[in-house]
Amino acid sequence: MRLWPDRSGSSNLPAVDSLPAISPRLALMIGGVAAVLFGLVLLVFPSSALSAAGLAVPTEATVVARDVGATLIGLGLINWMARDATGQALRALLVGNVVVQALEFVVNLGEIIAGQVPTQAVGGLLIHLVIGAIFVLAMRSISARA
Q1: CA 105 from chain center: how many Å?
Q2: CB burial class (10 A; 0-12, 13-18, 19+) of residue 24?
Q3: Fewer CB within 10 Å: C terminus or N terminus of the chain?
Q4: Cβ(101)–Cβ(134) under 8 Å?
Q5: What is the pTM assigned to this prediction?
Q6: What is the C-alpha separation between 84 and 77, in angstroms, rounded?
């Protein structure tokens, strides 16, 4: 009895080895720009950003949204300014970014499942998944060089 499907034959899913590696520099640039853009929206328009995700907008929420926005802008600048990093520093940047995206995905998914945020916030999950995948593919690039 098989516990999972046999993937040894042909499959419509790409093999992990066939996924492309992405330039770490490009990944840091994409992550940097995305973080700054989302950060600016949260910093300057916190009420609009929260209500677009279907969230209530008490004063406390706008305070936290602005704080998160400031943090995202800082992360974005770190990514942008360190886009030419190499070696252990590059690995640390990529791993750190993967962890941020993975934790955000897990936390947001848990909040959606628990009914703490409306289902219209699911779009955020896709953003974390895509940006996280970009950083994972960039890590594949540095692993292939090692």
Answers
A1: 8
A2: buried
A3: N
A4: no
A5: 0.83
A6: 13
C-alpha distance from residue 136 to each of 12, 89, 101, 131, 132 (Å): 22, 16, 10, 9, 6
pLDDT for residue 1 is more than 50: no
Whole-angstrom distance, CA of residue 39 vs CA of residue 98: 18
Q: Looking at this protein, which amino acid is placed at residue 113?
A: I
C-alpha 109/C-alpha 117 separation (Å) is 9
Residue count of the chain: 146
105 contacts 94 by C-beta, under 8 angstroms: no
Predicted pLDDT at 35:
98
- Cα separation, 137 vs 144, whole angstroms: 11
Q: In this structure, are residues 129 and 105 in contact, taking their beta carbons and an 8 Å threshold?
A: yes
Residue-wise pLDDT tens digits, 100-126: 999 999 999 999 999 999 988 899 999
